[in-house]
Specification:
Layout (H helix, E strand, L loop, with lengths): L1 E9 L2 E7 L4 E6 L5 H11 L15 E9 L3 H10 L6 E9 L4 E5 L2 E2 L2 H11 E4 L1 H8 L4 H36 L4 H21 L5 H13 L1 H17 L4 H13 L7 H28 L4 H20 L4 H19 L1 H47 L6 E12 L2 E10 L7 E2 H4 L2 H16 L6 E5 L7 H14 L4 E5 L3 H4 L4 E9 L4 E7 L2 H13 L5 H13 L4
Parallel strand pairs: 3-13, 3-14, 8-12, 12-13
Antiparallel strand pairs: 1-2, 1-4, 4-5, 5-6, 6-7, 9-10, 10-11, 14-15
Length: 554
């Protein structure tokens, strides 16, 4: 159940918090006051696509928080899978800034939008004008039918998808074996050449980097030799070398060693002379080891060019080249035994295809059985909603088997006796569509997990007694779910258990949305306004009271 919705800086809403109760919650108020913004905010926090235009003018960020009480085993299992500690309440928070960055948290834990959207579908089921558009598209009808089929259809679909994936893998293996015998021989010749080319090269992992370093060293040998000898001259091998001058300085200080602190300085000079002498010997060893072997350079250079050529052809690196070699050998061996493998794979794929066709047929039969049940329930619901001549059918067409089975489904409909049955998009008026959607909600809620139902102006296009029936139907849903509804129709509103009045106000700087929870007298007054307009008469008030009594709400 939705307990609290807190909204900050969304469109006209500066900051407000709405507490919802069990039963039938009704949102009423003037057009443009912000009622739909409340639902937009709820959709946003439950994973809807972010829209920066919703951020209140002049603000840098919008935020929506929502609290649900958790009474669903399905939701509890989902939270457990996410590693979210079990709580009696579920808190979801989401922000969006003007740069388009969105953050979302579940009970304080950072969460992905996809997971929040999945959780939201378990918590809330909503009807809006957007859902009418979804319903009109026949591509969505199979998914709706499957949802009504529940776990049995879901299990069959998983089996079909698994068998289809297995069959696809066999098709891939057969394709890799290369068409007819001529094509296989051509592929074998190419693979044989590629395998031989890589084998002859005898590539070693890391070899290219080692050769590259060695080539760089050899090509730099002359430069290194000159530099080392220059330093040796400065340190040791010239008459004015550093070692000569240190030795002379040490001798001078030796004559003065009787004076305070001189001996210490002499010893430090002596240590420095030994260290420099050691450095000079190390440099001499380096100079002696340097040589420019032109033949070695040419050999390494040719080897490096070969490696570059092979890696360019077979993957971009020595590692990828060796991987290609292993794969090529495996495929070559397969092609050598292609006739046997083809026979084996074709037999196995035919076995899988037979099982797939059987399971797809089983899924189709189950769908058709479910469809008959849906047809009966929809017709019954629509009849109770005043559409007594309705004909509703679920049309099936067979298609090539896919991971989703062998069925294409379309909902077709006729609202009036003698009218041709056509697709929903070609026959249903706005009022008929609202009632059709309510009928769907009624039958799907029986098998759904969501315990909060949202209706955004479901009374669009209807009035009079039909409105009263719609209100009664929505009210009936409260026996097993919380209902939150925006309505402009008094025949629907009278069935409400709690009322939230939405209005907009202005101060010196801006316009903003406010809400007020109505008591019994205020509820009667607002329903009377719906009946007779802003100039509320005693007759309208009396009528509103009578309607509430008939609805069993007073």
């Amino acid at each position: 159940m939705l307990k609290t919705l807190s909204i900050k800086n969304v469109a006209l809403i500066k900051e407000l918090s709405i507490d919802f109760s069990k039963g039938f919650n009704v949102l009423i108020g003037e057009t443009g006051a912000g009622k739909s913004i409340i639902f937009d905010s709820l959709n946003f926090v439950l994973g809807a696509k972010p829209d920066k235009s919703l951020i209140r003018s002049g603000e840098k960020e919008m935020r929506v928080d929502v609290i649900f009480s958790n009474s669903s085993e399905l939701v509890s299992e989902f939270l457990d899978e996410l590693g979210v500690e079990e709580h009696e309440e579920i808190l979801i928070s989401r922000t969006l800034n003007v740069e388009g960055k969105s953050t979302v948290r579940l009970n304080g834990m950072p969460m992905t939008l996809a997971l929040i959207k999945k959780l939201g579908e378990m918590l809330v089921d909503s009807y809006s004008q957007h859902e009418s558009v979804v319903l009109l598209k026949s591509k969505n009808h199979l998914q709706m039918l499957d949802k009504f089929g529940g776990e049995e259809i879901s299990s069959l679909k998983n089996e079909v998808a698994s068998l289809y994936a297995e069959l696809s893998e066999y098709k891939k293996k057969l394709a890799e074996l290369g068409g007819d015998s001529f094509e296989r021989e051509r592929t074998k010749s190419l693979l044989e050449y590629q395998i031989d080319e890589i084998e002859k090269a005898q590539l070693q992992l890391g070899e290219d980097e080692e050769i590259k370093e060695r080539l760089h060293f050899i090509s730099s040998a002359e430069k290194i030799f000159e530099g080392v000898n220059s330093v040796l001259a400065l340190l040791k091998e010239s008459s004015s070398s550093a070692l000569s001058q240190l030795q002379e300085s040490e001798s001078v200080l030796g004559a003065l060693s009787s004076f305070s602190n001189i001996e210490e300085c002499k010893e430090r000079l002596s240590s420095s002379r030994y260290e420099i002498d050691d450095v000079a010997e190390s440099l001499r060893d380096i100079a002696n080891s340097l040589s420019f072997d032109e033949r070695e350079f040419d050999r390494l250079d040719r080897r490096y060019d070969l490696i570059k050529l092979l890696t360019k052809k077979y993957g971009g690196s020595v590692e990828k080249c060796l991987e290609f070699y292993d794969e090529a050998k495996t495929r070559y061996d397969q092609l050598c035994d292609a006739d046997g493998l083809i026979t084996k794979f074709e037999k196995e794929s035919q076995d899988v295809l037979a099982r797939l066709e059987k399971k797809a047929q089983e899924l189709s039969s189950k769908r058709k059985s479910v469809a008959l049940n849906v047809e009966k329930k929809i017709v019954k619901e629509l009849s109770e909603l005043g559409m007594k001549s309705t004909v509703f059918k679920v049309n099936f067409e067979s298609k090539e088997i896919s991971s989703n089975g062998m069925d294409e489904v379309e909902f077709v409909f006729s609202a009036n006796k003698g009218q041709e049955i056509k697709s929903l998009s070609k026959t249903a008026s706005g009022g008929e569509m609202s009632r059709f959607m309510l009928a769907l909600k009624n039958i799907f809620t029986e098998i759904g997990s969501a315990r909060t139902l949202i209706f955004d102006e479901i009374d669009s296009g209807i009035s009079g007694e039909t409105g009263n029936i719609v209100g009664s139907k929505i009210n009936a849903l409260t026996s097993f779910a919380q209902v939150i509804c925006i309505t402009h129709l008094p025949q629907v509103a009278v069935y409400g258990d709690s009322f939230i009045f939405v209005s907009k106000k202005e101060d010196e700087k801006s316009t903003f949305t406010t809400i007020k929870n109505l008591d019994s007298a205020e509820t009667i007054y607002q329903i009377a306004r719906m009946i007779g307009g802003d100039d509320v008469s005693e007759v309208a008030l009396s009528h509103a009271k009578e309607m509430r009594l008939k609805a069993g709400k007073e």
